[in-house]
Q: What sequence folds into this?
């Protein structure tokens, strides 16, 4: 806990506690993106990037998510992945959401206008699943305050009532162990705790759920045969690759490296490190008379303290203000000194 993980891969110039908004890029990631950009500028890159790098990122995320790479589709954003799932539901289907969850989990469903949406508090989510609920769509960790959903209870309730599950792991994948195979769908933006460049995002789909998911944005990259890009694809890929968006190569060249680093360190080690730092911060906040949202999350929120974010920024401490909360997020590149620096400014 005392020292960061990742060795010399990171070089923050301030106390960076804002991974819930955007993760730091490792040096190897910056080098990969720079090398591709230089090659594109010089005209020495065949095409616009490497499909091998994209598949390397796919494999890297599959290791983080605990699934086979054939179950992983790549894309550009969580909203695009969620929109794909939303388009597969029949008119009138009931979707259960958490009150105040991040908009990308909700808006693609709401935009259809012909689905039945129901909203409940996070702590009531499992009990609110009922016969007729088609899908439970929720975040593993709430963006506004860092609360962690009772994942096992939600899965059990959904299974009991025949509802499918869509988990947004954007605020947890990279520090909280993920078993993506336990959900029909998971969506994960790569630019937070996975430390990927923005533009890399991952969708996992169970084999059963793939049967009813229509690849509405299928293009050349979704075809089984990539050697013939002309005319309609004779056959789409048999794997989740048929749900791929054409990749943003700069993002995925970087994502391959970031996910490799996470694989080297291990999610269990990151989890122990980040949650210990968060616990230290919670204890210090309580001692200062600023009780935080309770829990064991790596994301710590302090109600009513969001107005102190500019003060922290001036002191070189990067945090977020969300829904009135001061929000700090701890990751592998943070240390006990970072915690103590933030507490010192707040004292």
A:
């Amino acid at each position: 806990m005392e020292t960061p993980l990742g060795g010399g891969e990171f070089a923050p110039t301030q106390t960076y506690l804002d991974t819930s908004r955007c993760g730091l890029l490792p040096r190897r990631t910056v080098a990969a993106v720079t090398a591709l950009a230089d090659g594109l500028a010089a005209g020495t890159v065949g095409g616009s990037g490497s499909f091998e790098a994209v598949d390397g990122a796919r494999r890297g995320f599959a290791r983080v998510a605990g699934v086979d790479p054939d179950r992983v589709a790549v894309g550009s954003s969580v909203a695009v992945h969620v929109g794909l799932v939303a388009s597969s539901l029949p008119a009138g289907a009931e979707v259960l959401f958490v009150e105040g969850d991040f908009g990308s989990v909700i808006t693609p469903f709401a935009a259809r206008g012909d689905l039945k949406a129901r909203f409940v508090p996070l702590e009531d989510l499992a009990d609110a699943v009922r016969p007729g609920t088609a899908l439970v769509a929720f975040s593993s960790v709430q963006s506004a305050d860092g609360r962690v959903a009772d994942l096992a209870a939600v899965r059990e309730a959904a299974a009991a009532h025949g509802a499918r599950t869509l988990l947004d792991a954007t605020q947890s994948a990279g520090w909280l162990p993920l078993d993506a195979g336990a959900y029909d769908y998971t969506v994960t933006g790569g630019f937070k705790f996975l430390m990927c460049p923005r533009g890399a995002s991952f969708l996992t789909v169970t084999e059963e759920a793939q049967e009813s998911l229509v690849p509405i944005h299928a293009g050349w990259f979704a075809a089984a045969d990539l050697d013939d890009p002309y005319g309609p694809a004779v056959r789409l890929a048999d794997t989740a690759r048929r749900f791929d968006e054409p990749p943003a190569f700069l993002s995925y060249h970087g994502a391959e490296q970031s996910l490799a680093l996470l694989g080297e360190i291990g999610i269990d080690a990151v989890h122990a490190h980040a949650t210990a730092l968060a616990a230290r911060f919670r204890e210090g906040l309580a001692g200062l008379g600023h009780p935080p949202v309770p829990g064991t999350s790596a994301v710590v929120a302090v109600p009513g303290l969001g107005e102190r974010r500019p003060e922290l920024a001036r002191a070189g401490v990067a945090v977020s203000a969300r829904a009135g909360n001061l929000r700090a997020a701890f990751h592998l590149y943070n240390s006990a000194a970072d915690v103590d620096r933030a507490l010192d400014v707040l004292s």
